[in-house]
Write a structure and sequence with these properties.
Strand order of the largest sheet: 1-2-3-7-5
Number of helices: 7
Largest sheet: 5 strands, antiparallel
Number of strands: 7
Structural class: alpha+beta
Strand content: 15-25%
Distance between the termini: 20 Å
């Protein structure tokens, strides 16, 4: 998603933790919700929409603001490094804070999501600013729920972006001549014109 945001017009916004792939909250029951609006509107909503209690709960698993309201995962300590261990934060921790946190991701060096995000921002701000912020036109080559490939056109030249939204390989057709950036950068031999690797994001000419 960050690749898409950084290679198209507009003002990209990175919410806390997205720069290293932070996970949302794990909500398993009503006790995990903090948003009081869920409880205030529960009876009225269930009556007007003929929802059962379980159906209303499931609806809020995708619609609640609480899913993105976890505390920042700085490390794997008791409160994820957000505050002292003897303090109970108002919001809960991310479900995978022990393995997905800022300290852990940065320590991965070349395979770090944080490092990839920094490289994306650098491309947008510097060498390819005119392409990503002021391209002449955009051509959608493939657009479906599993993969997206598009071309940014400026001065009759093209820069391509390929994204696989799934954890499975996806068949595609592309003609890669020069890779500008990829989250498979350390495994460039795995990038080819016929297959998008799981969750692959590649910018190329």
């Amino acid at each position: 998603m960050t690749t898409l945001l950084m290679t198209t017009k507009g003002i990209p916004f990175i919410y806390q933790g997205e720069e290293f792939g932070m996970s949302p909250l794990a909500i398993n029951s009503y006790d995990d919700f903090v948003d009081q609006q869920i409880f205030r509107k529960k009876e009225e909503f269930m009556k007007n929409n003929d929802y059962t209690d379980q159906e209303y709960f499931q609806a809020n698993l995708t619609g609640s603001r609480d899913l993105s309201r976890s505390i920042m995962s700085w490390n794997d300590s008791k409160n994820a490094g957000f505050t002292n261990d003897n303090v109970k934060p108002y919001y809960k921790k991310s479900k995978d804070f022990e393995t997905i946190n800022a300290e852990s991701d940065i320590s991965k060096n070349k395979k770090s999501i944080f490092l990839y995000t920094k490289k994306l921002i650098d491309l947008r701000k510097n060498k390819y600013k005119d392409w990503f912020c002021d391209f002449d036109s955009i051509e959608i080559i493939i657009l479906d729920s599993k993969k997206t490939i598009y071309s940014l056109i400026k001065n009759n030249k093209n820069i391509y972006v390929s994204i696989n939204w799934t954890n499975e390989e996806q068949k595609c057709k592309r003609d890669i001549k020069n890779i500008l950036l990829s989250n498979y950068e350390d495994d460039k031999e795995k990038i080819n014109n016929e297959i998008l690797k799981p969750f692959e994001a590649t910018i190329y000419e």
